[in-house]
Design goal:
Length: 426
């Protein structure tokens, strides 16, 4: 029965694979992924689906070479193409486990093609451990939702066909089939939180509550449903706030309950691909940027991101270092202008149509003047203020020069006899 169930779950996933798309098995060399590859290979061949395997060699332990060699032998025996990705794991401040996981997913998205499908052999016991870890770390609803059955990351579709299957079922089937695999010696290191849960906590839970793993798996599904409902609510609030996650009107935020404010800000950060602000930073953000009556242009920073308040608007953005002194570049004027902090999707051309030499792009030094049609000489500082460019953006607004003449303030105004056009227009 377990054989039929496991093959049925894989075959159902294969049936949903679009023509021309490749399915990859994330092959660690352990029992779960090795069994998945053994079952998936003949099923994929029968359906005419290209099956490949990818192995990430972190190089974190002496057994790494043994794991890689096992994966190569296994794929050769099954006639499955294998890609081995060597990775260097750099601690990210959240522990070596988290750093290795981040490196592994980065390797997957860098290796696989757009819309390829990646199968991971994670199972119900893994999901239960993920729930417990999230609860012990004080995670919110999203963290308690654990691993989804299916999600997209970097253009790759990640699927876990066996997420509802118990570990003991996979182990029994691998032994029945005579599948060989590598045991990871690091699994015996109880300094790692997941290993400690697996060796000490989960067995005790199962002894007291035999259905503990299934119950925790159900709890993750309920958390995922709750998270989906919260996302719908946050999307409604974002639409009411104008729909731009980078600019949230304080008037709208103040009308929301405190819980919905926090939800909307977290939702907006995710929409912008920013790290979610930690709880303490989010509290400070709301206190200084939303609740404060005086507009003092505060700046709240968390890893990779920041929030600012200006003219009754909350701005969320990536953290960008200040431009280096004396920054400049040459621009042809015909392709989009790409600076270290922003892309401007326009070209700049003389209205007369006469050919012009390359343009020079600099940043403000102070005192620059732009001559505009019908307006005469205009101070750049005043132009930026009139255009409602936030103060922190003004120092990064590119100025475009033709020889000694200022011919444009990017995104704001062009000089007399010059004009902006969308870069993709003929």
């Amino acid at each position: 029965m377990s054989d039929a169930l496991l093959r049925s779950l894989l075959d159902d996933a294969l049936a949903q694979t679009a023509p021309g798309r490749c399915v990859w098995v994330g092959l660690s060399g352990g029992v779960d992924s090795t069994l998945m590859l053994h079952l998936a290979a003949p099923l994929a061949a029968a359906r005419g689906v290209t099956l490949r395997a990818v192995h990430v060699n972190h190089g974190l332990q002496t057994a790494a070479a043994t794991f890689e060699a096992h994966c190569r032998r296994c794929c050769e025996a099954l006639d499955v193409s294998l890609t081995v990705v060597p990775m260097t794991v750099v601690p990210n401040g959240h522990g070596i486990e988290a750093a290795a996981r981040d490196a592994r997913y980065r390797a997957f998205t860098d290796t696989l093609g757009q819309n390829d499908r990646l199968w991971l052999a994670q199972h119900a016991d893994d999901q239960a451990e993920t729930f417990l870890l999230a609860a012990l770390r004080g995670s919110g609803v999203r963290g308690l939702g654990g691993m989804p059955m299916k999600r997209q990351a970097g253009g790759v579709v990640i699927e876990r066909p066996w997420l509802a299957v118990r570990r003991e079922t996979l182990l029994a089937e691998a032994e029945r089939r005579g599948v060989t695999w590598c045991d990871d010696p690091s699994n015996d290191d109880l300094d790692f939180d997941r290993n400690y849960l697996r060796a000490r906590v989960t067995p005790a839970l199962r002894d007291r509550w035999p259905g503990a793993v299934e119950a925790l798996s159900r709890a993750t599904k309920q958390a995922q449903e709750a998270d989906a409902l919260l996302e719908e609510l946050a999307a409604i609030d974002l639409a009411a706030a104008g729909g731009d996650p980078a600019r949230l009107p304080l008037e709208v935020l103040r009308r929301l309950s405190e819980a919905r404010r926090r939800l909307l800000i977290r939702h907006a950060a995710r929409r912008l691909a920013l790290a979610t602000p930690p709880a303490a930073r989010l509290d400070e953000l709301i206190r200084q940027c939303v609740d404060a009556e005086v507009d003092r242009a505060p700046r709240i920073v968390w890893p990779g991101a920041e929030a600012r308040r200006w003219r009754e608007v909350l701005y969320l953005m990536r953290s960008v270092e200040s431009p280096p002194a004396g920054w400049s570049m040459v621009w042809d004027g015909t392709s989009p202008l790409v600076t270290p902090w922003r892309c401007y999707p326009w070209r700049l051309e003389p209205i007369s149509g006469c050919a012009s030499p390359p343009l020079t792009v600099t940043l403000r030094q102070g005192g620059e003047v732009l001559v505009q049609a019908g307006r005469g000489r205009r101070d750049v500082k005043r132009l930026l203020q009139e255009a409602d460019v936030p103060p922190w953006e003004r120092r990064k607004t590119p100025l475009v020069w033709h020889g000694e003449s200022l011919v444009a303030v990017m995104g704001v105004a062009a000089a007399i006899d010059w004009r902006f056009q969308p870069a993709d227009d003929p």
